[in-house]
C-alpha cells in the first residue's frame, strides 16, 4: 500500500525488538476486554443452543425439530466461531440466506418431448425424488407438495407454474406465505447427435430454520447439492432403464407412471 506524503513524512524509526509506542494507552485493555466478551458470548451460545436442543426434542413436533436444529447450530457456532451471540442467533433463525442449486445430467435415447411429458405430470416426481412424499396436481398451474421433515414429520406447500415452454422449460414458484419459499426451473435441450437430452435443474429456496439448518444437513451428508444431484441420477436411471437401482443393488421399478 502506497503511503501518502503526510504518512511518509511522519514515519518513526522503531528500534529492533522494541514495539512502537501506542497512541492509544487503553488499546491493550480494550482488546483484552473484547476477548473476554467474546469468550462470554461463546459460552452463552453454547448454553443457549443446548437449551434449545433440549426444548425442541421434548416437543416431539416439527416446530420442536426446527428448534432443536437451530439450537444445535447455535451451540456449534459457540464452540467453533469467533462471532458474537447476536450474529450467531441472527444466522441461526434468519431466512434471508437463500440456497441455490444448479445441476445437469444427460439422458440417452430419450427426446426432450418424452422427458418433458413425464416431468410435467408432477405426480411422477416422487418416483425418483425420495424426499417427496407426494405431489398433488390441483389444476393446470397449481400443485400441492408434501416433503419429508425431521423427526418423522412433513412440510407442505402449494406452488404455481410461472413460466412454461412446451417440451423445453417448466418454471415454478411457491405461493405467497408458503412454509418453504422456493422457486426454480427444469430445462430440456437436445444434446449433440446420438447423446439424447440434456436436463438442467435450478432450484433456489429458503430452508426452514435458516442457513444453520442447511449447514447441519450438510454435515450429516444431506445437503441440497448432493440431494438434487442424486435425484437427477435417479431420473436418468428411470428414463434410460425403466428402474432405479437401490443401495442394496436391487432395482426399484416405475410405480404407476402416468
Automatic annotation (TrEMBL):
<dbReference type="Pfam" id="PF03364">
    <property type="entry name" value="Polyketide_cyc"/>
</dbReference>
<feature type="region of interest" description="Disordered">
    <location>
        <begin position="1"/>
        <end position="35"/>
    </location>
</feature>
<protein>
    <submittedName>
        <fullName>SRPBCC family protein</fullName>
    </submittedName>
</protein>
<feature type="compositionally biased region" description="Basic and acidic residues">
    <location>
        <begin position="1"/>
        <end position="10"/>
    </location>
</feature>
<dbReference type="InterPro" id="IPR005031">
    <property type="entry name" value="COQ10_START"/>
</dbReference>
<dbReference type="InterPro" id="IPR023393">
    <property type="entry name" value="START-like_dom_sf"/>
</dbReference>
<feature type="compositionally biased region" description="Polar residues">
    <location>
        <begin position="11"/>
        <end position="25"/>
    </location>
</feature>
<dbReference type="InterPro" id="IPR047137">
    <property type="entry name" value="ORF3"/>
</dbReference>
<feature type="domain" description="Coenzyme Q-binding protein COQ10 START">
    <location>
        <begin position="110"/>
        <end position="232"/>
    </location>
</feature>
